[in-house]
Amino acid sequence: MRRFLALTTLWACVALAADISGNWKATAEGPNGQMERTFTFKVDGNKVTGETTSSMLGKSTITDGKIEGDTVTFSITANFNGDEMKIDYKGKIDGDEIKLTSSSPALGGQSFEWLAKRVK
Questions:
Q1: Element (H or E) spanning 112, and its range?
Q2: Largest CA distance in the chain
Q3: 20/3 Cα distance (integer angstroms)
Q4: Which CATH homologous superfamily contains domain 2-118?
Q5: pTM for the whole thing?
Q6: Contact 26, 115 (CB under 8 A)
Q7: How far apart are CA 8 and CA 110, in angstroms?
Q8: How far, in Å, CA of 80 to CA of 57, rounded?
Q9: Could you read off the pLDDT of 7-41 as tens digits, one per residue?
């Protein structure tokens, strides 16, 4: 009986995970004005993969991604002036919008607030 309850709970959690599969366009205010980034998310259960592109940092692969309910977390490794920099993202999903915060130790604790909207 316990196994059944555990499996039922696991299935419910996976079923409740938001589906963010597809293309998203995000904007944030940076020190030199507005920044843009696109995300292409692929979701398998609660695992998130994909890629992201920006004019400043180019294309990066999404790694370590997961969705728990309406929360998404993932990382990218970007090339910044020839140096690799890991950037962590955490966000809240609300329908066709995700409010993300990105941060990296390489940025000296600085973080950016992003608003991503699903591209239809």
A1: strand 111-118
A2: 58
A3: 30
A4: Quinohemoprotein amine dehydrogenase alpha subunit, domain 2 (2.40.128.120)
A5: 0.83
A6: yes
A7: 41
A8: 6
A9: 444 444 444 578 999 999 999 998 889 999 999 99
What span, in angstroms and rounded, lies between the C-alpha atoms of 16 and 87?
A: 27
For the chain, which residues make up each domain, given as ranges?
2-118
pLDDT, tens only, 45-104? 999 999 999 988 899 999 999 999 999 999 999 988 888 999 999 999 999 999 999 999
The residue to which tokens 């690799």 are assigned: 84
- Taking CB atoms within 8 Å and a gap of at least 24, the contacts of 92-95 are 93/18, 93/20, 93/67, 94/70
The total of other beta-carbon atoms located within 10 Å of residue 84's CB is 10
What 3-state DSSP class applies to 46?
coil
What tokens were used for 35? 């920044």
